[in-house]
Design brief:
The chain is an alpha/beta fold and about 220 residues long. The chain folds into two domains: about 5-120, Rossmann fold; about 130-225, Orthogonal Bundle (Arc Repressor Mutant, subunit A). It is built from eight helices and twelve strands. Helix 6 packs across helix 7 (about 175-180) and helix 6 crosses helix 8 (about 190-205). The mean pLDDT is about 85.
Length: about 220
């Protein structure tokens, strides 16, 4: 199973084509299926990392397909339906769906939800502590120590510093940092990143063997001097 493989099950050929187009542009490998009867066979054949599953399907509906998948796999499933009924949402989550999105949907939101569900479902290593000359950043106890003294930092500043410091030398755009640190459901201004970086710099100071640099026109990176 590849981590970027998506199976989309929907009887609307236009919806399938649109989702497939946007997911491929986002770098996913996409397989499609147009009915509930062959859905489980398609699931076995493609071995996807995530399933986008419509509720209203010919042959067998999405509830039945979800039940079959959950009988044998914990593969993430996002339910897709034209209905906006809260009861459908509750039923889907009770049956083991990981998320739920109603038609008509925004393609960017669907992609963001897919990425978020994949992040949540992918086993991650325990939180680490990053140690640099004079600096320690820990997500285990959300603490930042500079030259032996602990700094007062709110959680998001610590998470942002940890993320950048754990990818030393790599440049990230503001949008990438919003997605990685704040999550897909944050729809604030990208200047939020600028504000947090400014506060982090003020607390860290300048006289170190490393620095949090601005890459003009792109974003930010953490690097050793």
């Amino acid at each position: 199973m590849e981590s970027n493989t998506i199976l989309v099950i929907d009887d609307d050929r236009n919806i399938l084509a649109i989702i497939e187009l946007y997911l491929k542009k986002a770098g996913f490998q996409v397989y499609t299926c147009a009915d509930g009867t062959s859905a489980l066979a398609a699931f076995h054949e493609t071995k996807p990392s995530l399933v986008v599953l419509d509720i209203m399907l010919p042959g067998r509906d999405g509830w039945a397909v979800l039940h079959d998948i959950r009988m044998e796999s914990e593969t993430p499933v996002i339910m897709l339906t034209a209905k906006g009924d809260t009861g459908d949402r509750v039923q889907g989550l009770e049956l083991g769906a990981d998320d739920y999105i109603s038609k008509p949907f925004d393609a960017k939101e669907l992609i963001a939800r897919i990425k978020a569900v994949l992040r949540r479902s992918t086993p991650t290593e325990p939180a680490r502590t990053i140690t640099l000359p004079g600096l320690t950043v820990s997500l285990e106890n959300y603490a930042v120590t500079l030259d032996g003294r602990q700094l007062e930092m709110p959680p998001k500043e610590i998470e942002l510093l940890y993320f950048l410091a754990s990818h030393t030398g790599k440049v990230f755009t503001r949008e990438q940092l919003l997605e990685q640190v704040w999550g897909f459901d944050f729809f604030g201004d990208s200047r939020t990143v600028d504000v947090h970086v400014k506060r982090i710099r003020e607390k860290l100071g300048d006289d170190h063997e490393w620095e949090l640099r601005t890459v003009w026109g792109v974003g930010y990176k953490f690097e050793q001097k």
